[in-house]
Amino acid sequence: METKRPIGIGVLGTGAMAKALGGAFVRAGHRVLVGGRDEEKARRLAEEIGATGGATLAEAARFGEAVLVALPGGAAQEVVASLAGDLRGRVLLDCTVPMAPGEGGPALTTDGGTDSLARRLASAAPGARVVKVFGVCHESIWTLAKPSFEGAPLGVPYCADDPAAAGLAAELVASMGCEPVPCGGLERAGLLEATAVFAIGVWWSGGEARHVFPSPALAPGAVDDEG
C-alpha cells in the first residue's frame, strides 16, 4: 500500500542521482531539501525538481527523518564523517556505488564480502541508521513515474540493521509505486554494491543486465531445486 504520509528527506549532493531520486521523492509527495557544497547549485536543483529548497550540506543533514547520500563513492565517507553530529538519529539512505575503472571493466573500491561503503558510512556516522537502497538502478529509472516492467512494479532491494530504519525505507519505496525487497542486514550491503558494479559493466559493454537474471519460473517445466 502506498503511503500518504509525507516524509522529510534531506539530499546530500546535486548530481544526477540527487536530481533523479530527489525528483522521485517530490512526486511521491515528500518534503525534500537539497544540500550541496555550492548552495546556489543546490537552490537551482531544488527549484528544478520542485523541492522545498536548497541549502548547505549540514542543513540538509538536519532536515527531516531521512537523509539521502547521493555523492560520488570516493567522497561519501569523508562528507558523512564531517556531518556525523548533524546526522545523529537520522535514517541515512545510501545509494552510492563504490566503483572505479579496472582493467576488465568497472571494479569495486571496497574489499568486497562483508566490507561495503554502506558499513563504512555507518562507522563514519555512528549515530545514524544506515540503509543501503536505491543504488542498483541507473538514475534514469528514477525519472519514471511509478516505474514498472513486464507488468510488475520495480523491485527495490535494501539492506539495514535497524528495523525502524528498514521500515521507513520500505515505506518510502512503496510510496514511489515500487516494491520493497528486504535483503538482510548491512553485512549483505556489499552484495548490492557488487551487483550495481556488475550491471554497470554489462551496460558499458553493450549488454543488457536484465537478460542475465531471468526468473526460473519462466522455463517450461521449472521445478524448485529443492523439490
Give a quick rundown of the structure.
By secondary structure, the protein is α/β, with parallel strands linked by helices. The protein contains eight helices and twelve strands.
Spell out the blueprint of helices and strands.
Layout: E1 8-12, H1 16-27, E2 31-35, H2 39-49, E3 53-55, H3 57-61, E4 66-69, H4 73-82, H5 84-87, E5 91-94, E6 99-102, E7 105-108, H6 117-124, E8 129-133, E9 148-149, E10 152-153, E11 155-160, H7 163-175, E12 179-182, H8 189-204
Parallel strand pairs: 1-2, 1-4, 2-3, 4-5, 5-8, 11-12
Antiparallel strand pairs: 6-7, 8-11, 9-10
Query: Termini distance?
Result: 33 Å
The percent range for strand residues is 15-25%
Please give the largest β-sheet: 8 strands, mixed
Helix/sheet category: alpha/beta
Strand ordering within the main sheet: 3-2-1-4-5-8-11-12
Based on Cα principal axes, name the global outline: globular
- Total strand segments: 12
Assign a percent range to the helix content: 25-40%
Mean pLDDT: 93
Radius of gyration: 17 Å
What is the overall number of helices?
A: 8
